[in-house]
Design brief:
The structure is a homodimer of 101-residue chains.
Chain A lengths: L1 E7 L3 H10 L8 E7 L7 H7 L3 E7 L2 E10 H8 L3 H15 L3
Parallel strand pairs in A: 1-2
Antiparallel strand pairs in A: 1-3, 3-4
Chain lengths: 101, 101
């Protein structure tokens, strides 16, 4: 069984790809996971690591297929704002710089 | 039954898309025709009319999905050389210009 992950950000281009292309995949051959990076920003790094440069993208057994162009992964990341880890690091840096414990 | 046409030009990017993505489509939902524009240059105009700008591309019920980027459709057309119709027009134009019957 092949494994596929469809990364998207809820955009119109993403929805069209999901509705027409991803829904037409043979689920007896491929197990498809759908990941909305706008709602699961902790999965953005995983997508980048897999080679995803823009959404929508379908990763099938490690091969990345960018389908049309909705948004760059960097813009998805920017739109999501800093992660909690990033926020904590910024606050820790400010505390350290200002001598606050 | 949905109808899909996969346009490609035999390039490595095209073959990956065909092997991983097109082969994983559910043929009970979608009837897929595979068109090698390098061998069927008379189908290039049809692909352009459908909205195909680059190959590989999958057109599902009129919706165009460009999958990664192998080559622009213009480069496919250039690589194929002029069609027989174009060749005939060029020869007819030369004959007319030079007064040859």
């Amino acid at each position: 069984m092949k494994r596929a992950t469809f990364y998207h950000a809820g955009c119109a281009v993403c929805r069209a790809a999901e509705n027409e292309l991803v829904r037409a995949m043979d689920r007896s051959q491929v197990s498809v996971e759908i990941v909305h990076l706008g709602k699961q920003k902790d999965r953005i790094d995983e997508a980048v690591k897999a080679g995803v440069e823009s959404v929508p993208a379908l990763v099938i057994d490690g091969n990345v297929f960018h389908i049309n162009f909705g948004a760059s992964i960097n813009n998805v990341r920017l739109a999501m704002g800093p992660s909690e880890k990033d926020q904590e690091e910024v606050v820790a840096g400010m505390r350290a710089g200002w001598g606050i414990r």
